[in-house]
Structures are given as structure tokens and as C-alpha cells.
Write a structure and sequence with these properties.
With 220 residues, the protein is α/β, with parallel strands linked by helices. Among the domains are: 47 residues, Urease, subunit C, domain 1; 96 residues, no CATH class. The protein is built from 6 helices and 12 strands. The strands form 4 sheets. Strands 1, 2, 3, 4 and 5 form a 5-stranded mixed β-sheet that branches. Strands 6-7-8 form a 3-stranded parallel β-sheet. Strands 9-10 form a two-stranded parallel sheet. Helix 2 links the parallel strand 7 and strand 8. The longest helix is centred in the last third of the chain and has 16 residues.
Length: 220
């Protein structure tokens, strides 16, 4: 079964082109003008993109299936035009070990709707106390390490993580927050928070962490 999507704006590596797009057997088989197929769908005025990649998805499985599962998250992603998502490691157990990484990947394959790419923790349990076995996780295909919503507070630990990431050719994702400056915060720190008498979240809490990690990156 072949289908021509006629007259759309197609985003390619070379830029946006106004053309027809042919899909045959579920795969794109050609881009051009005046193309023929058994079925023609007019998409004039619409834009065709390559599949999107979500670099920060909370799929919650294992451990929080009451809020989301890999299948439901995959379904939502596919409907939104995503062909791959990176699953954050804030699961229970956390994605700091090979069995959990393999479980997340397998559940994504079972759902079969898009590619689910598990990330790994920087620290064990995302607790910021000891490094996760980054080399072991990298061997099974983990390319992104992050503690997700928990910033790595210990500068020495983050330095070691950067050294390992360089050696392993993987990426680190940091949650930029000095947590001691944000305790109890419920809104951005500003005149409004003072007027309301509620704890504010100061911008410096993020800026200090960004500055620290830039300097650590230069060092390593």
C-alpha cells in the first residue's frame, strides 16, 4: 500500500522543501513532485517533520505505575510525533544498575510504539553520596547520566563523574540547584515573595551550580 502526501512543507537536513512525500509499506520511500500512489492525501499548508526526540521524559516505571507506565508514556509520545524518548532515572528502584536499565529498555520494546532510551543515574539512588557504576551502565548502552531532579551537591563527586564521562564518552545532565539555598521555597524569590511572606527560590541557587560545573568541566 502506497500513499502520497501532496504539497506539504517537508523539513529535511538541507532545509524546508515544498514537495510530495511517498510512504510505502510504512516507510518513506521518496520525496519529490508529481509523485503517484494508490492513495493521495492533500497536506497543503502543513509541515512534515522528522520524528521528534524527547530528551527528558518521566515514564515512572518501575515503581510509580500509578502515575505513568512506559506503555502509556510511549503512546502519548507517539501521538505527539515523537519517535524516541529518553527515560529519566527517577524510578524505584532507580536506574543505577544494569537489571533496571534492561527492564526499562525491554518494556519500551514490548510497547513497540517508539524507542525508549534509558538514562542512568550519576549517583546511587540519586542520593548524591556515591557514584553509580557508570562504566557498567555504559557497557549496556547508557549514553546519558543524570540524577534528574536532584542536583549533585558534592563538587568532588561531580568532578569524578565528569572524569568518568570523558573517559566513557557519555553525557552528563545536571539539575542546577544548590539545595541549601532553596529549602522550603514555594515560588521565585522576588518582591512578591517578600510581600507575601513566603520562602522564595533565589536565582543564585541555579547560577552558583552552573558556575561551579562550568569550572569543573574546564578542569576535567
Amino acid at each position: 500500500m502506497s500513499v502520497v502526501f501532496r504539497g506539504g512543507n517537508i523539513v529535511t537536513n538541507e532545509g524546508v522543501v515544498h514537495a510530495d512525500l511517498v510512504v510505502q509499506g510504512g516507510q518513506i520511500s521518496g520525496i519529490g513532485s508529481g509523485l503517484a500512489a494508490k492513495e493521495v492525501i492533500d497536506i497543503s499548508g502543513l509541515t512534515v517533520f522528522p520524528g521528534f526526540v524527547d530528551l527528558h521524559a518521566h515514564l515512572r516505571e518501575p515503581g510509580r505505575e500509578d502515575t505513568e507506565t512506559i506503555e502509556t508514556g510511549s503512546r502519548a509520545g507517539a501521538k505527539g510525533g515523537y519517535t524516541a524518548v529518553i527515560a529519566m532515572p527517577n524510578t524505584n528502584p532507580a536506574q543505577d544498575n544494569v537489571p533496571t536499565i534492561e527492564f526499562v529498555r525491554l518494556q519500551g520494546q514490548r510497547a513497540g510504539l517508539l524507542e525508549v532510551i534509558p538514562s542512568g543515574c550519576i549517583t546511587m539512588g540519586r542520593e548524591g553520596k556515591a557514584l553509580a557504576p557508570m562504566a557498567e551502565l555504559a557497557k549496556v548502552g547508557v549514553k546519558l547520566f543524570t540524577d534528574d531532579g536532584s542536583g549533585v551537591q558534592d563538587p568532588l563527586l561531580m568532578r569524578r563523574a565528569m572524569e568518568y564521562s570523558k573517559e566513557l564518552n557519555v553525557v552528563l545532565g545536571q539539575h542546577c540547584e544548590v539545595s541549601s539555598l532553596t529549602q522550603g521555597a514555594v515560588m521565585h524569590e522576588c518582591g512578591c515573595s517578600s510581600d507575601l511572606g513566603v520562602p522564595g527560590w533565589p536565582s543564585i541557587a541555579e547560577e552558583l551550580m552552573v558556575h561551579r560545573d562550568i569550572e569543573l568541566a574546564r578542569l576535567t
